[in-house]
Design goal:
Elements: E1 2-3, H1 7-15, E2 23-24, H2 41-54, E3 61-65, H3 67-78, E4 84-88, H4 100-104, E5 109-114, H5 118-130, E6 135-140, H6 155-169
Parallel strand pairs: 1-2, 3-4, 4-5, 5-6
Helix pairs in contact: 2-3
Amino acid sequence: MDAAGARRPLAPRLAGRGLTVLTLDLPGHGASDDPWDPRLAPAAIAAAVAFAKGRGAEHVHLVGEGVAAIAALAVAADSSGVTSVTALSPLPDGRVADNDHIREARIPKLILVGSSSRSSTEFAELVYRRAIGPCEMARFPVAAQGSDLLYGEWGDQALEKVLAHLLRQG
């Protein structure tokens, strides 16, 4: 699954490598008329995982940005159906004080963040430090965050990091 705006450059690259890609328009984003409520993100992502597994997916990799990255970790903590999580500039989702879902997602994780933003980098580092299990973090010397990391001067490097992570996990 590829959440939010990350689907534009990422989905075609993944599909070009023989991977099947499901993009998700979270409630309150994109074409959705619903109001954005971060508490709805884990349920929407869990439904997408169940959909993919129900259609025979052997490996489900979640790619989320901002609050959706934290929701992807929460789903991975509660589901044995998730193979890995890629978090593009994770952002607090209101449950930061009780972020066991970050710790309990023991599957391989990749965190990408633009290092020119101190607050974004600090939260990404918190997620990295709290993670249990395999976790890699890549910082790019840009102000861009989230799916914007996949564009611009460092976009190719960021895309290659994501692709390498996914292919290593199966």
